[in-house]
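Sample entry (432 residues):
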Amino acid sequence: MIEIKRFDSQSNNFESQLKDLLSWETESDQAIFDTVHKILRSVRLKGDQALLEFSEKFDGLTVDTASELELSPKRLERAYQSLSDVERNALDSAAERIRSYAEHQKLVSWQYTEVDGTVLGQQVTPLDRVGLYVPGGKATYPSSVLMNAVPAKVAGVEELIMVVPTPQGVINELVLAAAYISGVDRVFTVGGAQAIAALAYGTETIPAVDKIVGPGNIYVATAKRLVFGTVGIDMIAGPSEILVICDGKTDPDWIAMDLFSQAEHDENAQAILLSTDAAFLDQVQASIEQQIKEMPRQDIIRASLTARGALIYVSDMDDAVKIANYIAPEHLELSVDDAATVAKSIRHAGAIFMGRYTAEALGDYCAGPNHVLPTSRTARFSSPLGVYDFQKRSSLIGCSSVGASELGKLASVLARGEGLVAHARSAEYRIK
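Predicted structure, serialized as tokens:
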């Protein structure tokens, strides 16, 4: 039997139970920090030479020059053409849906003119060069390539550079095919913290980028944390999460499998169900016990649900919404009547899946919205990855003679109040 935790939101100690359930240590331990710091410093100082040394040490990949780490565009095309029709159609369709959604996200430039002729506005421009980290080897994450690369290209990023480890030379064809579909410009077979260092600082072969996106292990995440400021990053992601709110009217087998869909990621993933129907929680528990027998990753699911999962009874839908807003989950399924109305009360969630038929897994692959989402309660202050993450805004200010004179009077008073005389006089020179 899976000993998944059971809570009642009305119990006296529920708040502390929930807080303990959600707690997650995001900091790297000192040993990992020290290792990553040394790798970053080595790549920064030695460039390609360090990349070659680390590729051999960590990935068993031996090449004579760093240029051999780059895959040609024809190699990407060959990977795409080698797919079965079913795989190729699935990738093409998913990419098109992601691209269509991303087109709606683009920020636009705007400006307006005041009565005195002063022009104010904003100018939106894309990042010049972005680095995309993709897990490699036996891991197969073509969806990660699509979700990161397609919005970058829709934003207008001129050069998109992908790095992907190929331990013992293992190359994943689906990942390369996804890079081809997405319009990735250059691909290098290098991974780990050394790949992040190369993207952040540049080497003789790999150019420095302006921002690094994409998932990775604890060494990659730590490296991204350490290079932030030199370059931008998307986020520091924690384990995957799902919160399901169900009124008890959905097939319990569906809900159990929805919980499995996140629990199977790894032992630290979190799957939580809130329901106003205590009997339904029992039904889902029974379904979990039955369906887990069929799961290839049942050991991981079992560990995840036991350590970080929970079935929680709530008094009513308002109670469920209140708890959901506190949890601020990465994925939130509203498996209830009139889910669209309930969604309006949700203030904090990475992605909201409305209705009984909207499985979270659809969002992972092909619905259209991005699957790169804030975790560990960071949805309280951050958003899904999108086109806007690959664009930046510049303020536009253009004063007319009359406008400069009037604004100069205001600036003079404020600048002198701060003791900044040069500021004041600069503004005063324009006063009529």
